[in-house]
Write a structure and sequence with these properties.
UDP-galactose 4-epimerase, domain 1, binds guanosine-5'-diphosphate-rhamnose, single chain, binds NADPH dihydro-nicotinamide-adenine-dinucleotide phosphate, 39% helix, 10 helices, 7-stranded parallel sheet, 325 residues, Rossmann fold, 2 domains, alpha/beta
């Protein structure tokens, strides 16, 4: 079989780095689209940077995306790039709409005009369920987004469905619930906690300030989710899938386990700081991934407890050289 080419937008992000590793293992030629920056943003893909091709483009710029698709001639495109931090979507709502919403249309337009046989994966989100209309949430649960980010993702989701139905493009949307790892950005709550716990354990800091501890999320491991993205593009028929573990935990549960992993009591160090509350909160997410399980044979392998432990251990190892003598 000839080698396949995959184009990943957002290759420098958490998921992009895991997906690039996974596709290289499958024998793909991997091309990553990155936006120009004056600093090195390749931290997460440093170890594979010589194995992938980096091309310069931006979700805001139609011509860059169209010419990348024409030049690279990918078999598959994984659209992972987005403004992905929910709180930033209230302070930069228009930019979030441009990146996270319209950016999807720009890539679909590039496919439509260059080669409509290219297969397309859109990184949709459980944030689209927002104020949930059913528990657990499945592919048929109505959307009720609670942030400009969630609203933009709903647009990205439906434009993907629309290009599939309008132009017969193999365009699919993975409705992924939260997935984490030691490569998660430090502004997201899981990594903020694992990083904070490691700092406290090592005597670098003494307290951890968090927002709403009651929020509940369906947390999985990012490495498991990128496998599902690929599986979705190998199917005979284009379809959308919920990707989730089916288990939900509160932020407080994550905090407790993370502190327990280093033998500390979370109550002695965590301060609830209303600065981290959101204008509108998503209280409870728990996904029903039985369709992905049945049709793709996909099942997440890393448990919540393993995930918490892995993240804390990784941050302890990273920060140990900075511990006071
Ligand atoms: P990250 O925030 O870690 O990565 C986002 C990526 O998008 C980065 O590579 C970033 O590049 C890139 N990017 C942002 N803006 C632009 C732009 N204008 N042009 C080109 N590239 C841009 O996100 P994750 O890896 O966690 O998530 C991947 C995708 O999946 C996102 O779309 C996210 O919304 C979605 N998602 C994530 C979930 C999760 O739990 N992780 C769950 C559900 C959906 P740079 O390095 O330059 O900033
Ligand atoms: P989320 O992830 O908004 O679910 O979006 P995040 O980790 O930011 O928040 C999860 C929950 O934790 C609560 N929380 C805090 N959050 C942050 N960031 N910082 C805090 O100090 C804090 N304290 C409590 C939040 O209120 C929230 O309820 C992530 C992103 O990856 C999206 O791109 C993706 O689409 C969804 O997951 C699925």
């Amino acid at each position: 079989m000839p080698q396949k080419t995959a184009l990943i937008t957002g290759i420098t992000g958490q998921d992009g780095s895991f997906l690039a590793e996974f596709l290289l293992e499958q024998g793909y030629r991997v091309v990553g689209m990155t936006r120009r920056s004056s600093t090195d943003v390749h931290e997460r893909i440093q170890h594979i940077v010589d194995d992938v091709t980096i091309v310069s483009g931006d979700l805001l710029d139609q011509s860059s995306m169209t010419s990348i698709v024409a030049e690279i001639k990918p078999d598959e495109i994984y659209n992972l790039a987005a403004q992905s931090f929910v709180p930033a979507s209230w302070t930069q709502p228009v930019l979030t709409g441009e990146f996270t919403g319209l950016g999807v249309t720009r890539m679909l337009e590039a496919i439509r005009t260059v080669d409509p046989t290219i297969r397309f994966y859109q990184a949709s989100s459980s944030e689209m369920f927002g104020k949930v209309q059913a528990v657990p949430q499945s592919e048929t649960t109505p959307f009720y987004p609670r942030s400009p980010y969630g609203v933009a993702k709903v647009y990205g989701h439906w434009i993907t469905v629309n290009y599939r139905e309008s132009y017969d493009i193999f365009a699919v949307s993975g409705i992924a619930f939260n997935h984490e790892s030691q490569r998660r950005g430090k502004e997201f709550v899981t990594r903020k906690i694992s990083d904070g716990v490691a700092r406290i354990k090592l005597g670098i800091q003494n307290e951890l300030r968090l927002g709403n501890l009651d929020a509940q999320r369906d947390w999985g491991f990012a490495g498991d989710y990128v496998r599902a993205m690929w599986m979705m593009l190998q199917q005979p028929r284009a379809d959308d899938y919920v990707l989730a573990t089916g288990r939900t935990h509160s932020v407080r549960d994550f905090v407790r386990l993370a502190f327990e992993a280093v033998g500390l009591r979370w109550e002695d160090h965590v301060i609830v700081d209303p600065r981290f509350y959101r204008p509108a909160e998503v209280d409870l997410l728990v996904g029903d991934a039985s369709k992905a399980n049945r049709a793709l044979g996909w099942r997440p392998e890393v448990s919540f407890e393993q995930l918490v432990e892995q993240m804390v251990v990784a941050d302890l190892g990273r920060l140990r050289p900075f511990a006071p003598a």
